[in-house]
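PROTOCOL LOG
Step 1. Enter all chains and additional molecules of the complex.
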Amino acid sequence: MKVEYIQPFYRATKDVFQIMMDLEVNRGDLRLAKDLIPSREANVIIGATGDLSGSILYSFPKDMTLTMVKIMSGMELTEMDGFVLSALGEVANIISGNAMTYLNSENYRCDISPPHVMFGTSQSLSMATDVALVIPMLTSIGEFEINVALRETKG
Amino acid sequence: MMWKDKYKIGVELIDGQHRELFGRVSSFLQAVQGEGDWEVKLEQVKSTLQFMQNYVVEHFEAEEAFQRQIGFPEYEKHKQVHDEFKSTVNDYAETFVKEGYTQELVQELGAKLMTWLIMHVAAADQRIGAFVREQGGTQ
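Step 2. Run joint prediction.
Step 3. Record the structure below.
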């Protein structure tokens, strides 16, 4: 797990939040985690295969998720229903896709799997990775975390 | 979904159509997420979906014709993105006909439409506007 895999995710998150929600994102201090552990209630996990393989876990607070989808839809939302959770999954999917494009330009070829969204679960998601780098993302509507656990598999 | 001036690409025809598309996707989302029992809302959900779907085809055709007319260099790539999106929407529509309009699946489509449309109009389509400006305007 190298720190340079982090920058594409930060850059993609900044772009996507700005384009979709007009929100600025700043990065908190990176930390290491031994496993993928959801720190918030709404979680999206996306798998990666190719030159880098492993998983990316997006962990959002419930209220922040509702605000994000409210900003995008222009609708008042109070429930974490299928619409809200699917929208969260899509945002994580778009961020991951853009991050993969940036990694691609650094000669890492990777594909991602469709987002898997979970709400209310708090167990650790053991993905048989060595270690995850946790990026806290700070916005005016709340803080969320991206856990990146990728291993280089190209020879 | 709120239309924003930052989505404009500076071509009146396309901006007007994007605005209409945002309006139709919004009507669909409001039908899906509105108060009331799913069974009661269903007719409204189906008609707003159809209304939106028809316009997606009409708009993509018009936008692609405009891109050909101005010699947009990324035409093929952009058309492929349109085609993939149309087939995603058609796949959902086919599943609804076969398996019924379940709330969960319709909500999933609503979320995909919303996020795709914002990203596409606010990012990918901006390249058309940039190209037009590079060429010195539409005329």
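Step 4. Note key features.
The radius of gyration of chain A is 15 Å.
Strands of chain A lie at 26-27, 31-33, 42-50, 52-60, 110-112, 116-119, 132-139, 142-152.
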